[in-house]
């Protein structure tokens, strides 16, 4: 039984041990995977966002200075997770599932300047998290689940905080007086409180100065209470996502306060006719407002602003700049003529109405805009027909800048004529309209100095352009040349066209800025740049540069060029030659042969001349010319038939001899052979060669028509060039055919070593064939002739 009990406990223990090791290995592997999911650069910037992490990776050290763990699944921040990151300056923990942060989690982060805890699940905030973060400048707590900013002041230990974002879109409902205690100056404060139900007066008043306040409020119930507290300490108010249908402005609440608000933005805000009147009242009583912007707003009304007249409101306060972007008017076709608001516009100097489907500015409204200096109607529906009414007589009398970018203008000539009423206009932007072509002549306001014709699809420039221009933008068109004389032009923007060269400097004598990138320019030179005496900035990158030696020498050798080329060196890339394509012009290097072609050609020519000279010397020394002549003759011989038919043989023997040995041949050998009975018929070159026929052909034909070839060898024979030919042809036609047609007569002793190297055939013949020697003893000469006759007959 004890033995059985032992077995009973041993088995579960083994299973338990295996299970523990498996768990440990899983956790170890998980920790290893998490640590490896971070990517850190040498400067200590670590990126771990969107890595599906469920906890802060272990092993973080003091070398980490920036840590991004946003967009993960982290749920908990413990006291020890970041304790070694004593040099950490930036910590991003946004968009996780964090619901708990222990009290001392950030205690060791005394150098932290940026902390993002937005869009987590924090339901309670603790001031102990921030008590050691003295240098913190940025804190984002948006999008969590808390209802208030804690029981005590959260930010009293953050004297250097400059950007603060708090609140959420649902549960954050209360702002108390102690919430912002300790904060004296903020560059940006964003409060998301769509469902705000309680605002304790003076809660924001403790902040002495706020540069930019962003308020997310669904309803305007508490808006005035907030304005009362901040209107004397705020520079820039931005109201977002608010329905102002029920907004009512009380004059008594704010009229006596010294206001500092200079800019007011309404972003994604809804108005009615009545609430718009209340907002205009606000402009009048908050006297410091100079700039108002409506961005992506909706006007739920029909333009009935008669209440403005009843309230005797004459101006939009001190507002000088009015900006409207993406204005939606659901009942636009029921809208009034807006005449009730015309008188309010008299002090406005800058108006921008973008992407709001504006097709007409009524003439009467244009005439009321007496102080207007800047008008931007970009991305609307203006055409020449409606512009005629908008730019009527006495319209916009002080207008200097008009922007009609991306409308429906089609005629450049008509546009210029319609704007003649604008006597003070000097800056016109009509880019992104479809003009397509440019007429030869146009009329423009007399003070025109700036004209923007970019992205208008024009393909050529004419004298239509005003001569008074100082700034011209014709970028992103189809231009392939620029040949206009503009004597006052200082800045030319002509990028993204099809120009092949820089414009002629004589046409632009005072040009100081030129941007000509993105064309098809291959090169430019120092002389071209020097021809622009006042050029201070040139942007010519993005072209197809041919990196020639001259171009590289100019660009790489001019240190001062970098001060003129604003996009140097990254914008300048080689397109050719192919082996440097894609390289920066600054880094391209060409070989010596590419850069000094003339010198290389000269050197090659000199080398060839020397080679030819050397070849000539060698040919003369080693009889090269003789060998070439021999080769030509050999080729001629090779084309002839190998062997003549026997019926074509005319001679018993062809005699090859030197002219110096002609006495022996003609007076002795001919007498002995041709006068013998029966006689032998010999072929002698003096007697039997065909006159006028090439001597080589005579030699070849004579050898072929003879049964034998007799070589009379002597020192004279060796020195004779034609004898050498006869010997070679005989060797080729006879010896190579393995017959025995050659007869050698040694007229005098010849030392084989004294025979020149070019008589290699003769050396070979004398080593392989028997030859007859001419005896000096007269008693032996009869036997010589007998042997010679026998050899010819054989």
UniProtKB/TrEMBL annotation:
Give the membrane topology, semicolon-separated if more than one: Single-pass type I membrane protein
The primary location reported for this protein is membrane
Q: Which GO terms describe its molecular function?
A: amyloid-beta binding; identical protein binding; lipopolysaccharide binding; pattern recognition receptor activity; peptidoglycan binding; protein-containing complex binding; Toll-like receptor binding; transmembrane signaling receptor activity
**Gene Ontology terms, cellular component aspect?**
cell surface; cytosol; Golgi apparatus; membrane raft; nucleoplasm; phagocytic vesicle membrane; Toll-like receptor 1-Toll-like receptor 2 protein complex; Toll-like receptor 2-Toll-like receptor 6 protein complex
Q: Where does the signal sequence lie?
A: 1-30
Q: What compartments host this protein?
A: Cytoplasmic vesicle, Phagosome membrane; Membrane raft
* Cystine connections: 40-46, 363-392, 442-464
Q: Where is the TIR domain?
A: 649-792
For the biological process aspect of GO, one term held by this record is: detection of triacyl bacterial lipopeptide
InterPro entries assigned to the protein according to its UniProt record, in alphabetical order: Cys-rich_flank_reg_C, Leu-rich_rpt, Leu-rich_rpt_typical-subtyp, LRR_dom_sf, TIR_dom, Toll-like_receptor, Toll_tir_struct_dom_sf
Record keyword NAD present: yes
Report TM segments.
Answer: 598-619
Give UniProt keywords alphabetically.
Cytoplasmic vesicle, Disulfide bond, Glycoprotein, Immunity, Inflammatory response, Innate immunity, Isopeptide bond, Leucine-rich repeat, Membrane, NAD, Receptor, Repeat, Signal, Transmembrane, Transmembrane helix, Ubl conjugation
* Entry function: Cooperates with LY96 to mediate the innate immune response to bacterial lipoproteins and other microbial cell wall components. Cooperates with TLR1 or TLR6 to mediate the innate immune response to bacterial lipoproteins or lipopeptides. Acts via MYD88 and TRAF6, leading to NF-kappa-B activation, cytokine secretion and the inflammatory response. May also promote apoptosis in response to lipoproteins.
Q: Which family does it belong to?
A: Belongs to the Toll-like receptor family.
PANTHER family attached to this UniProt entry: TOLL-LIKE RECEPTOR, TOLL-LIKE RECEPTOR 2
* Name of the protein: Toll-like receptor 2
Please give the organism.
Capra hircus (Goat)
